[in-house]
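Could you join me in thinking about how sequence relates to backbone shape in a protein? We need material for that, and I hope you will provide a protein of your own picking. Label the sequence line and the structure token line clearly, so we can match residues to local backbone shapes. Would you write everything just below, so we can both look at the same thing?
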Amino acid sequence: QVQLVESGGGLVQAGGSLRLSCAASGRTFSAYNMGWFRQAPGKEREFVGVISWSSGNAYYADSVKGRFTISRDNAKNTVYLQMNSLKPEDTAVYYCAADSTRYTRVVHTTPGAFGSWGQGTQVTVSS
């Protein structure tokens, strides 16, 4: 298990950018695929993207592909979500999460596969 704390949320105009950070505690951060999810009011939590522990490759939901970028710095135990060209429909609480399984070769995209979650950070995009 890792403990996760997100930061960087806020209010931004449509077309703007934000960078979210997720700081992890624990010595095995580098062993986990790290995901980002979001949840808008009245909607289910949805997958945004995930970055592999092994290759560093990232995979994205179609709705954010080309606009969002996930990166990680294992030396700082931190994963980032750079969000560009933000749209009002990106408004949500954003959560980072660690896969339940260390060293997994499977890239999961469903919330149930992630065992550790941050508290979330609010992102609001005004039109």
Q: What stands out?
A: The mean pLDDT is 96. Residues 48 and 63 are 8 Å apart (CA to CA).
